[in-house]
Amino acid sequence: MTVRVKVCGTTSLHDALLSAEAGADALGFIFAPGSKRRVSPEVAREAGLAAGPVVARVGVFLNQGLMDVLRTAEAARVSAVQLHGPVSSLYVREVARYHPVLRVLRPTDLGQPDMLEVLSFPGVTPMLDAPEPGGGVPLDWAALREVFPAGAWLAGGLGPANVVEAIRALRPAGVDAVSRLEQGPGVKSPEQVRAFVQAARGA
């Protein structure tokens, strides 16, 4: 099975085209308040659609109101929604009525009854991330081998130098990177993006 590759924190048309040309399967556009990589729905829509129809466009949200998420996702024309934070199962279910959902988990969430319920909803896929998303700190993959959910995505401190080790340890359905692909906050490094996609494909 080929591992899917998402380049998150896309903030410009230039970087969207760069990631698409490098072979990324998905682009992440962050709408979370306070993020140094936050973009407007208009920028996300232009950049995401320019990347082409085969590249998924993922809107990233953190503890935002349900209607805000749905309105922003519609305005940005995203094809999936990534949800961070302690939102309710009802909230996740409602978002999943309109968009496929990547529900972000921390290691301490694994096996919790409420989270198992959420992951049983149609259209919801788990993504395991570090406690501080975007912080560049990897998870302890060896400690997660026995509990990593089947079909889950993996994030948290991934980059060209460690993505192969992470894939071999956990066999995720997809991998997601932000900080280690940048030359500055919100500005992608062409060399790192290309190297990350190539390494993930080669794994």
What's the helix and strand layout?
Elements: E1 4-7, H1 13-22, E2 26-30, H2 41-50, E3 56-62, H3 66-76, E4 80-84, H4 89-96, E5 101-105, H5 113-119, E6 124-128, H6 141-144, E7 153-154, H7 163-170, E8 174-177, E9 182-184, E10 187-188, H8 190-202
Parallel strand pairs: 1-2, 1-8, 2-3, 3-4, 4-5, 5-6, 6-7, 7-8
Antiparallel strand pairs: 9-10
Helix pairs in contact: 1-2, 1-8, 2-3
Order of helices and strands: EHEHEHEHEHEHEHEEEH
What class, by secondary structure content? Answer: alpha/beta
CATH topology: TIM Barrel
Q: Tell me about the biggest sheet?
A: 8 strands, parallel, barrel
* CATH top level assignment: Alpha Beta
Q: State the total count of DSSP E strands.
A: 10
Distance between the termini: 10 Å
Q: Please, how many domains?
A: 1
CATH homologous superfamily assignment: Aldolase class I
Low-confidence stretches: none
Report the sheet-strand fraction.
15-25%
- Tertiary shape: globular
Work out the helicity level. 25-40%
For the biggest β-sheet, the strand order reads 1-2-3-4-5-6-7-8
GO molecular function: phosphoribosylanthranilate isomerase activity
InterPro entries: Aldolase_TIM, PRAI_dom, RibuloseP-bd_barrel, TrpF_fam
Pathway: Amino-acid biosynthesis; L-tryptophan biosynthesis; L-tryptophan from chorismate: step 3/5
Pfam families: PRAI
